[in-house]
Amino acid sequence: MRDLKVVIADDHPVVLVGLREVIQRDKRFDLVGEAGSSSQLIELLALHQPDLVITDFNMPGDETYGDGLQLIEHITEQFATVKILVLTMVSNHLIISRLLEMGVAGVIAKNHIHEEIGKALNALANDRPYTAPTVQSTSVITNLKVIDERFSTLSPREIEVLRLFVTGSSVGDIARQLNRSVKTVSTQKVSAMRKLEVLNDHALLTYCIKADPFE
To answer: Which domains does the chain have, with CATH numbers?
Structure first.
């Protein structure tokens, strides 16, 4: 059996190091590339045509590839033969269900990565899908207590970004108004989305309107 070519992607270097060590110890896999953003990931997929990609769900995106569902959809459409293993902090069962509907080979919760990555790799090496343990969803927008708790984790700068986002300002507009770089504002917005467990601008806007945290 030939080695399976693997590309890994995550914007956290510690996660990349951990994945690298696990994959390099397993003789069934050949690590051919590492990415820290969606653009880098797509470049590596085109270059190496790997058998498996292990990618974070939320990474610094761009207007072409984005991240989250947009990125996964692009990979499934343009690289139909690659198996996709998604790492995520999102516990929303609707998002996870959508990922599985899109054809990903498995979804691993990042807080369970140490226990589950070996099981996932073993399943995929044997041409089987990886089935994650059932995780109780906590992303319940109707639960105002949960919403309040999530907003309490945001930094003042993240709240500033969201306040302007809700008014209809783009990332570029917000950067100019706050005298920050576009990259900084984008990073703060993505960080806020992770904490609130939302995956796109529409969901973020809905969440902010529901919570009304800016009064």
So the answer is: 4-125 (3.40.50.2300), 144-211 (1.10.10.10)
